[in-house]
Design brief:
Blueprint (H helix, E strand, L loop, with lengths): L21 H12 L13 H24 L6 H14 L3 E2 L12 E4 L2 E3 L14 E10 L2 E10 L5 H18 L6 E2 H14 L3 E2 L5 E3 L6 E5 L10 E2 L4 E4 L2 E3 L5 E3 L7 E3 L5 E3 L2 E5 L4 E5 L1
Antiparallel strand pairs: 1-4, 2-4, 3-14, 4-5, 6-10, 7-12, 8-9, 11-16, 12-15, 13-14, 16-17
Length: about 290
């Protein structure tokens, strides 16, 4: 007697639906019925896709490690861009920011009061006391990764160092909120509470994002949201945690001359760390840092 073929799962894993995402779908229907915002199927990565994204993330980490080994006073942000482009292509990958919606460089370098999307330039020379965020994103065989780190150039003031450290703590506390069937708002609450407790402000208009099969996907991740709100975090979702923490006001302005670089409105410093996270059945996995 021929065995009746059972339907394969919608996720593309080639596994039978009953053993793959059937229980998952039942949980999603239950949560949707309760009025919660749940992810669409296209946001859930299968095993093969996660494997590809992990490979991309390894390259992203290696590129940032290279920057960390070489960045110092006297280096221009254009030199950082050259490093990122050379190391990324060395690994047979593509710098994801290059030409993305018209962005002209391979990496974002945001110095001092630049919040994000700083454009590398041979005219911007890093000096003692500066802080800079280097935001690297990689496209490897169609799989995307994204992470950023803060660098203190030489000796920085205690006030500035505290901002950088607190921004990292905000990211780490947000990460601790990642769990299957929790809420993205839990991350935002943890971030904003810690920032406010330390006397800082969180940028509201710019947040994290889904990533993996495209550079930017849903969901958008706010860092001023409330616990128990926003989208449900389901296993297989991948997104970034990247709060931008300002020493002064949360208000920002965009450089009208290039349409990209975001500054603090009051000219005070801003700091940001970014990681890429996979929601798992047990908790989370940090893919890129």
């Amino acid at each position: 007697m021929d065995r009746i073929k059972k339907p394969l799962c919608w996720c593309g894993s080639k596994a039978e639906y009953s053993t793959c995402h059937q229980e998952f779908d039942e949980k999603i229907r239950e949560l949707r019925g309760k009025g919660y915002l749940v992810p669409q199927r296209k946001l859930i990565k299968n095993t093969q896709q996660i494997k590809g994204i992990r490979e991309s993330a390894k390259i992203n980490i290696a590129v940032l490690d290279f920057v960390a080994q070489h960045i110092r006073a006297g280096v221009t942000t254009q030199q950082i861009d050259s490093w990122v482009h050379e190391r990324t292509t060395h690994y047979k990958a593509v710098p994801a920011p290059l030409h993305f919606e018209g962005f002209p460089k391979s990496v974002c370098t945001s110095v001092n009061n630049q919040v994000c999307h700083g454009i590398p330039s041979s005219k911007v020379v890093l000096k003692e006391g500066d802080i800079v965020n280097v935001d690297v994103s990689t496209n490897y065989r169609g799989y995307y990764s994204d992470s950023s780190r803060m660098f203190c150039i030489g000796k920085v003031t205690e006030t500035t160092k505290r901002l950088v450290d607190t921004a990292k703590e905000c990211m780490e506390l947000g990460l601790k909120q990642v769990r299957p069937w929790g809420f993205l708002g839990d991350i935002g609450q943890a971030v904003s509470d810690h920032a406010k407790k330390n006397g800082y402000a969180v940028v509201r208009e710019i947040g994290g994002h889904g990533i993996g099969l495209q550079f930017h996907e849903l969901p958008w991740v706010s860092y001023v949201s409330k616990r128990g709100t926003q989208m449900v975090m389901a296993p297989g979702m991948i997104f970034t945690i990247e709060p931008m923490i300002n020493m002064g006001s949360h208000r920002i302005v965009i450089d009208q001359s290039n349409g990209w670089t975001v500054y603090t409105a009051d000219g005070k410093p801003s700091a940001q760390w970014e990681i890429q996270v996979l929601v798992t059945e047990e908790g989370y996995e940090v893919l890129a840092y």
